[in-house]
Amino acid sequence: MVIVRDTLVDALVARLRDGVLSGRYPPGAYLPSERELAAEYGVTRTSLKHALSRLAQLGLVETKHGVGTRVLDYLSSGGPELLPMLVVADGPGWLEETFQARREIGALVYARAAERRGAGHCADLRALHEAVAAAQTADDAQLAECEIHRVLAAASGNRVYGFLVNSLLNAYLPVRQLLIAPFRDPGRAAGRLTPLVEAVCAGEAGEAHTAAVRYLAETERLMLSGEDR
Amino acid sequence: MVIVRDTLVDALVARLRDGVLSGRYPPGAYLPSERELAAEYGVTRTSLKHALSRLAQLGLVETKHGVGTRVLDYLSSGGPELLPMLVVADGPGWLEETFQARREIGALVYARAAERRGAGHCADLRALHEAVAAAQTADDAQLAECEIHRVLAAASGNRVYGFLVNSLLNAYLPVRQLLIAPFRDPGRAAGRLTPLVEAVCAGEAGEAHTAAVRYLAETERLMLSGEDR
DNA sequence: CTGGATCAGTGGCTCATCCACTGAGCCATC
DNA sequence: GATGGCTCAGTGGATGAGCCACTGATCCAG
């Protein structure tokens, strides 16, 4: 386990972000001036500006020179990069919707990959599949599992799907412990993955699609119920 | 037309980002130290830090205290928020893949919305549809069209799809001129939208799905060919 | 009523300076 | 020879004072 110490700016971003997500700073409203905020949080204006700059990059606020910093409506203008923080902020609601999107988009990606399968991709997939089965620790299995999704996304022939999968996987990071559960027993994980991986490698598009949907639905049911821990 | 003057930090971000995307700073490599970079670009270290902070938020680099700033592999760790800059950077390739993803995910969203249609959503949709038809300028039509996508995403009952749609729509912003083309003639735009909107409002899920795919495919063909301008 | 000047308040940016962290290398100790 | 602690150079983190540029409201002269 690596000890990670948040930087001051990270902490500031978290505080301000929570203020926005919780509605303390509602959409359309202006934040207090940088000088006021800096005084309120007991930091330099420089540090506060760093934090605001990152909030702006996230699409949570918008800063205009000479005017002020306005809160945006993240629901109507935000992107999936907000998911990780939303999942921890209000939990189950966002998590379930993320799972649903992942399942449906995952099925799309899997079907595409099956259609376009190439020898190289299949080799990667088999190797990763074996890595999951052989993994001694839950962490290893989890990492390998993530890699499988990424390899499939790459095999879909559309890099945009790679980005979407990355975002959806990142949304899980904060609740990683829950996710690891189904992989505590490497044998079971292997058993569950086989049909999907085999189907994709064999190029059976229709069957792969069906298998993918079934696999993802089952996996997520386990994750949400917290069963098998 | 509003005149937007980029801030110094914006320009810095653009320069550094191009350096990363172009491979001048390859994945895994370390950037020069902040002091060196600041000198090279003729700016204060403070400003440079702001820029690096935003690059980090974008997932392009990773900064570690006492060590340095390392370039990440955006293809394997980035999210769809990178699309806008990739589309302008190397154009057609990313644009086509974005269109494909938008078409397939759009169809998913449309089908979902048709399944779960509610009176309120349908009213919104009809109003927007009429706004597109009535729009006097291409800009208006484009904005209303974006709104239709957002309303549909909202009607799908999954806020994550809203985020995904936002990201994909944002990817178009840099090439907005191209996109506006099919809407130069409001009458045609209206004619093209009708079947989809009607189908969703009528709740014919299967037909809506088919119509959505056909509509999106046609629209994007026009966009890519640049025809009808 | 209009157009320009003023002014208070806001964010943009700089500078000089110090602190905290990391990793490499040295060296005495075991 | 291996180990553990030390120093040191180089890196990013943070400060705070200060100045500049922009915006919008207000006021006033025309």
Automatic annotation (TrEMBL), chains A, B:
The keyword Translocase does not apply. The keyword Transcription regulation applies. CDD domains: WHTH_GntR. It comes from the Bacteria. One of its GO terms (molecular function) is DNA-binding transcription factor activity. Keywords: DNA-binding, Transcription, Transcription regulation. Pfam families: FCD, GntR. Residues 6-74 form the HTH gntR-type domain. InterPro entries: GntR_C (IPR011711), TF_FadR/GntR_C (IPR008920), Tscrpt_reg_HTH_GntR (IPR000524), WH-like_DNA-bd_sf (IPR036388), WH_DNA-bd_sf (IPR036390). This is HTH gntR-type domain-containing protein.
